[in-house]
Write a structure and sequence with these properties.
Length: 467
């Protein structure tokens, strides 16, 4: 992007990512002396001090975008919004924190995307690299903003980036190792349709060269189809069947088959699946992806197994909270879409109390509803939030039943809780020794809570107060 004529820069959105870009621009010779404008629809944001920093806030924050030389779009700002596309047509360069990182990164980039599992997989890859002696960083949607780690990196560094569809949609460079986990559908309140969402995710491998590597979830058609879009060497992973090149689960163990660049094409056992201590077979997929990346990076089987054994999962992702009176409580507040709640439902065989509902992301609850009606272990559902009526309606109509007036008699339905104290109290009343209680809402948190973190933190605090 080096251009001595850059005089006016806009930061479109001033969140965590926008603030990171501003810090970078302030210290970078390419942008020194440029006027920087902060554009945000919020009028009450705290602005930084600086003579060359100006702002355009509120309802008209998108006015006159064509007057800028460069616009750095934050991930939440829709790339296809008409105002931004009009600026591009006028000759304005539109970039982002992610693009800036790819342009400046001196080391090796591993990018991880998917509908679910990105954070867990990214962190496990990072731990495997560290255990193997690599100078590793984790950034993007997890850890620090990506451009913040640039000053600490060199040619021998490895950066593991968790990448969302928002960050990938206009990316024209792919990571050296691109990982695509399960790709189903999400963020349909942001994307035009599922096809646009899946196409954005595909950029994690679309621009690879023959020297690069694509690591794809073979069990999911959209992810597996990315093999046709990349020039890189394709590895896959599966928890259901052996794969030609990559990682799978067989005989209670993670197995790997490589090529001449990894292990000479031989099949080998990495470690038993119970080396992984986080619940749910879906995490076998995340571990399979991480193992494959570790093998590509040259990490030994012993170091990979040791990193897996030490890993205890991420906060708010099926996180074990406590056992109280023989009842185990799990915080899965990061579950903001129905398929994540389906995964939580399938992770335990024990009788379950599910906490469902929240604010809308435009989701379809029919598959989750069928899973609930088909389950023999859902003991109770605590329905909360604005989306609960839609979830309930889907459950009543699931499995081709003619919309009965009630849930199956084996499921206790509890409604009307308006805060986390009441939710936990209701769950405690429904639970018996041997049960599990899972906060896996399948919805965004807004309304009752500021975000999924606050929702999970309140849940854990109330559970720990139980006697």
């Amino acid at each position: 992007m080096a251009d001595p004529h850059i005089k006016k820069i806009a930061l479109l959105g001033f969140d965590r990512e926008g603030r990171s870009v501003l810090r970078f621009l302030a210290d970078d010779p390419e942008f020194r002396g440029a006027d920087i404008w902060i554009l945000d629809k919020k009028e009450d944001i705290e602005l930084p001090a600086g003579a060359n920093v100006r702002s355009q806030l509120g309802a008209r924050y998108l006015d006159d975008l064509d007057r800028f030389d460069v616009i750095f779009r934050t991930a939440g700002a829709r790339y296809h919004m008409p105002e931004l596309q009009a600026a591009i047509a006028h000759g304005v360069t539109v970039s982002s924190a992610t693009k800036l990182f790819f342009e400046r990164c001196p080391g090796t980039i591993i990018g991880v995307t998917g509908t679910k599992g990105k954070g867990t997989t990214s962190t496990l890859i990072y731990e495997i690299l560290k255990r193997g002696g690599k100078k590793a960083f984790i950034a993007g949607n997890i850890g620090r903003p990506a451009v913040d780690i640039l000053p600490e990196m060199d040619r021998d560094s490895w950066a593991v980036l968790e990448l969302s569809s928002f960050q990938l949609i206009d990316l024209e460079t792919s990571p050296h190792i691109g990982v695509a986990l399960m790709v189903t559908s999400e963020h349909l309140d942001w994307h035009t349709d599922v096809e646009e969402y899946a196409a954005a995710k595909a950029n994690v491998v679309r621009f690879q060269s023959p020297d690069d590597f694509a690591v794809l979830a073979e069990d999911y058609p959209r992810s597996a189809a990315y093999a046709d879009l990349t020039a890189g060497s394709v590895f896959t992973f599966s928890r259901r069947h052996p794969v030609k090149k990559g990682t799978w689960v067989e005989g209670g163990a993670f197995r790997f088959a490589g090529d001449d660049g990894t292990n000479g094409g031989a099949t080998e056992t990495i470690c038993p699946v119970d080396t992984l201590h986080i619940p749910g077979e879906h995490n076998w997929e995340n571990a399979g992806a991480a193992i494959t990346v570790g093998k590509i990076a040259g990490i030994s089987n012993g170091d990979i197994a040791a990193a897996i054994d030490d890993f205890r999962g991420l906060e708010h992702r099926l996180e074990f909270v406590a056992e109280k009176g023989g009842v185990r409580w799990y915080d899965d507040s990061y579950s903001t879409m129905p398929d994540a709640a389906e995964v939580a439902l399938a992770a335990f065989d024990e009788p379950k109390i599910m906490i469902l509902g929240g604010s809308s992301k435009g989701a379809d609850f029919s598959s989750l509803a069928e899973a609930i009606r088909g389950s023999k272990s859902v003991k109770a559902i605590i329905g909360v939030g604005a989306e609960w009526p839609r979830i309930k309606e889907a459950i009543l109509a699931a499995n081709n039943t003619p919309a009965p007036s009630s849930l199956p008699p084996s499921i206790l339905l509890l409604e009307g809780c308006t805060d986390m104290e009441a939710i936990v109290r209701a769950a405690r009343g429904a639970a018996a020794p041997g049960d599990v209680v899972i906060l896996s809402p399948a919805c965004a948190s807004f309304g009752m809570f500021k975000n999924y973190t606050e929702r999970g933190d309140q849940f854990k605090a109330e559970v720990r107060r139980l006697t």
